[in-house]
Amino acid sequence: MCPANLRFTKSPLGLASGRWLRLAKRRDSPPVFYMESKLLAQTCARLADNKKAENITLLDLRELSSVADYFVIATGSNEPHLRAIVDEITEKLRLDHKVRPYSTEGARVTPWVVLDFIDVIVHVMNEEFRELYDLENLWGDGKKIDFDPEATPVAAEA
Question: What angle (nearest 5°) sits at the alpha carbon of residue 82, between those of residues 75 and 116?
């Protein structure tokens, strides 16, 4: 179920929400490609797995929130590892799918980085922050999506 004011448009890679299209138009240069939000969330999770992110969780929030359709939550062991995970996600999506985050929160040297892809929000954080903020519990009504890193074509490419 989607809100009545949210329209979807068919694009080369699936459905793009009207929210994404409105934001893209504001930037004066619409993205070349769109990715359906579930595919984007799974791709982000697989790319994080390519850099050995730990405890990767995908949450389906479509029935709960208008903030995002999916959360991807991943843990890195230290700040260089967090940067490597974030760089892998942003660079591979930019190069392979022409998708860029709408915004990025968190400095290069921080224990928590958030990549906002409008319909998908990726949280990459260290173990201490993950336990402290406990996003899985906070958004506990969201449905967890199974993530199997072994059966992914992105993981095979790396």
Answer: 85
Domain ranges of the chain: 14-146
Residues in CB range of 63: below 8 A, 6 or more apart? 1, 143
Question: 56 near 74, Cβ under 8 Å?
Answer: yes
DSSP letter, residue 64: T
User: Model pTM?
Assistant: 0.73
Residues 132-144: tens digit of each pLDDT: 999 988 998 888 9
Return the H-helix or E-strand segment holding 92: helix 79-97
Contacts within 8 Å (CB) and 24+ apart, 112-119: 113/82, 113/86, 115/44, 115/86, 115/89, 115/90, 117/40, 117/44, 118/17, 118/19, 118/20, 118/23, 118/68, 119/17, 119/19, 119/20, 119/37, 119/40, 119/68, 119/69, 119/70
Query: Which top CATH class is 14-146?
Result: alpha beta
